[in-house]
Amino acid sequence: MTAAQKISDALSGLPLALAQAAAYIKENQCGLAGYLPLYKKYAKELLNPNLTEHQQVISDHDLPVFATFKLSFSRLPEPAQELLAFCALLHAESIPEEILSAAYAVDDFALNQRLKPVLQYGLMVRNAQDKTLALHRLVQQVLLLDMDDTQKQHHAEQAILAVTEILPANKFENWQHYERLLQSGLACAHWITNCQLETEQAAWLLNEIALYLENVKTDYTKAESLFERALTIHEKVLGEDHPNLATSLNNLACLYNAQGKYEQAPNPCINAVWRLMKKPWIKTNLALPTV
Prior knowledge:
The chain is mostly helical and 291 residues long. Among the domains are: 2-63, no CATH class; 169-291, Tetratricopeptide repeat domain (Serine Threonine Protein Phosphatase 5, Tetratricopeptide repeat, Alpha Horseshoe). The chain has helices at residues 2-10, 15-28, 31-41, 43-47, 51-57, 65-74, 78-87, 97-104, 108-120, 137-146, 149-166, 175-194, 200-215, 220-238, 243-258, 267-277, and strands at residues 95-96, 124-127, 132-135. A three-stranded antiparallel β-sheet has the order 1-3-2. The radius of gyration is 23 Å and the shape is globular.
């Protein structure tokens, strides 16, 4: 029962997907426990089996899961297809509508026009009360499996620009707004690493999310990894003498200070901040930790 529940969770309880998984397990005699590791590694192959073989083992379904979703996608207007692919890179369970409005520079009426066919096909669900959208997890998986690296990078860059546009800098008193955008921001952070994106906007977003995680959520572990990634991008994109690099260095040093990890505050980090502070063009109030 435990193995069956895990398979059902992975396939979001979709009847067609479950029937397809059951047929594979029966045909290959791999057992319930043996299916999930295979699915994690070979999701596209298992969701998109040979059509002839599929019809032999599941005679009451014309198409496998992958092909069924792709057929639905193909019937959408191009703007709706673009929107659906973009949403696949965000936190599927709760996508704030303002991210889509920013990404496509549209008002509510124009956004409704883009969303209408997606909602009609049941590919997304809208929560009108909190103005969020939910994308079915299996739909998200099929969309991502069908994208090449170039497409993923395009949508990731688009998402980063949209989130940075609506995320106010260091205004944590409006924590509800940050909390609303947090999961989408973390999804962007994932794609910044996954697609190896190295832009000023990417570094800014990583820094901003890390500051919120440190100061409001006290999630130091996650904040540290984001600060370090932002610092690496700043060093590569901006060079050693840019004031934004000083900010990244300072943020990382202060994080160690907040945890009392004085021995882990790297001396090169502290020295670099001091060196940059001596630049005549820097006017900032960097809060160096006492070590």
